[in-house]
Amino acid sequence: MRLTLGNMLSSSGHEVVGEAENGVIAVEKYRELHPDLVTMDITMPDMNGIEAVKKILTEFPQAKIIMCSAMGQQKVVVEAIEAGAKDFIVKPFDEVRVDEAIKRVLG
Question: What is the dihedral of CA 73, 100, 5, 44, to 10 degrees?
Fold first, then answer.
């Protein structure tokens, strides 16, 4: 899924500066890279996406994070938004929806 989303972002003219296979690494990568935008999966090993969002936003309140979720995870999406995520995109990814979310979050 990271590869699919990365390809969509690249083909839309965005630069992918880093990837993380779990929430712990996502937080470390944010500290290191300070990206303009993060796309974060909810379901990850070691630290889930909700916990990672909270941790990143505690240290970097200006962080812009879009959550990725599978269909049927509406309760978790609400929790992610309450944790500070700016938007969400549902898997499987739709390129138009991904683009809309990024434009909305980046302003």
Answer: -30
Reported as a single tens digit per residue, the pLDDT across 72-104 is 667 888 888 999 999 999 888 999 999 999 999
Domain of 77: which CATH number? Answer: 3.40.50.2300
Distance, in Å, from the CA atom of 27 to the CA atom of 74, rounded to the nearest integer, reads 24
pTM to 2 decimal places: 0.91
61 contacts: CB under 8 Å, gap ≥ 6: none
Q: Helix 95-106 crosses helix 2-11 at what angle (to 10 degrees)?
A: 70
- If one counts the domains in the chain, the total is 1
